[in-house]
Amino acid sequence: MDNIIFELSNVYFSYPAKIPALNGIDVKINKGQKVAVIGANGSGKSTFLQMLNGLIFADKGKVNFCGRQLDEKAFNDGKFSLDFRRRVGFVFQNPDAQLFCPTVEEDIVFGPLQLGLDKNQIQKRLEELITALNIKHLLDRSPHRLSIGEKRKVAIAAVLIIDPQVLILDEPTAGLDPLTTRQIIDFLIEANSNGKTIITATHDLHIVEDISDMVYVFGREKKIVKSGLAKDILNDLPLLQENNLVHIHRHKHEDTVHIHPHLHLDHHGDNH
Amino acid sequence: MKNNNFIQRSIIGALAFLKDLIFAEELAARRGFLQSLDPRIKLATFLLFIIQVLLARNLQVIFFLYALCLLLVLISRINLLFFLKRTWFFIPLFSLFIAIPAILSFGLSSVLPFLMRVLTCVSFTVLLSITTKHFALLRVLRIFKIPQIFVMTLGMCYRYIYLFVEIIEQTYLAVKSRVGTFVHYKNGRSIAAWNIASLWQRSVKLNDEVYKAMLSRGYRGEAMVWNDFKFRPRDWLWLLVVLIMFVTVSLRGAVGDEAIFY
Known about the structure:
The structure holds 2 protein chains of 2 kinds. By secondary structure, chain A is an alpha/beta fold. Chain A has one domain: P-loop containing nucleotide triphosphate hydrolases (Rossmann fold, 3-Layer(aba) Sandwich), CATH 3.40.50. Chain A is built from 11 helices and 12 strands. Chain A has a 6-stranded mixed β-sheet, sandwiched between helices. A 4-stranded antiparallel β-sheet of chain A has the order 2-1-4-5, covered by helices on one side. In chain A, helix 5 packs across helix 6 (119-132) and helix 5 runs parallel beside helix 7. The N and C termini of chain A lie far apart (41 Å). The longest helix of chain B is centred in the middle third of the chain and has 32 residues, at 148-179.
């Protein structure tokens, strides 16, 4: 029980105009676990992550963090709110929303400044992070002038500088080239080996095995259709097809047209 | 074709504005004299120069300060021709039109002090803005006790202008690729209105996301901002030189023979 960091039971959520986004979600996430959330566009992954980060609250059901229910009342308690924000970091899907300051440096230090960390400590962490992520040369730049890969690295740095115990990432590798994808995945694996809980929503099936001990598949009905180990989920072809995670691949062998489901499990393309 | 020009000109204007800002940022990033100064000291000393120009009763003092401004341009690695183009552009805008009646009645020499005063003030202001990064200038505003939330909001506006200009450009190209270059003005109007509505919706959505991103990193209604400005010996030395100059020039200017009143 003590090991459970997030516990969601029968959670429902709808956006204004009664557009359902989550339809009865039950999830338990343990400390130090790597969790991947996969599903087609609009299956509720981002809503689920925002709920874990206490940015939106359940219409029905319960979301607990270390035994305390996450609702507006909890976040009205300044002490809890501060503690939660220090312990849970969220990397948004859209880096242009996350990086809102005029310079990269100001963006990275924004979080720890709001959370009241000591300035010397912030400076020390800043130095460590920019070296580790190789973004020192970007500090004076404005976020709008960065490439998508640089933006994602800066967004991750802006969250890691808080040194949260739980790191929630929404599509951290979307639109990235293979090398930058690998760098970010390696960084997440290292963070997890240092004890951090990593929760990632993604479409990239080729990274799922690396970033998960447990995979949750979100379906069109905005609920979890299956959960389990990465290898079991990735071998369940009907499930992946049903949820738009594989596509039909068509190519020619000499004069014969050959059609089969196509999985992107790695960058070398030999896992068809 | 002609009816489509308004939209095209607006887009081109927005892009030119963007490029201009980017170019100004590059100038501010160069390793020149003014760029190396602390923005607070730079702002304070430039204010002194402008006050001196405004109070000067001697044309020579204004000429001296204008020459000093041009010298600062050179040692700050800014192309003199570019600077002159930029500053002289403002002169007809701000002063020449105002001075036309005086020129017609008393000749050009009668308005020379007024024009020089405007030119020198504009030159110092432009020089300050192109040698200082915009975000640094915004942060300096806090010296004047402007609330942090205001400074932060200005900074965020500055940051998102680029994003929206890029969106406008991409939308315009997407429309152009589908409808060609000729659009009937009625259709053009509805396309422009549709784009404005679409941009509005995007900005509202982004506004919601940005606010969530702020909350997620601990924002609780009162923003704390990073202040890493550091005074260095050269900043104090520059301040000292400017103060000495200010006192000396003020004393000399006050007793000058050729008092001017514009």
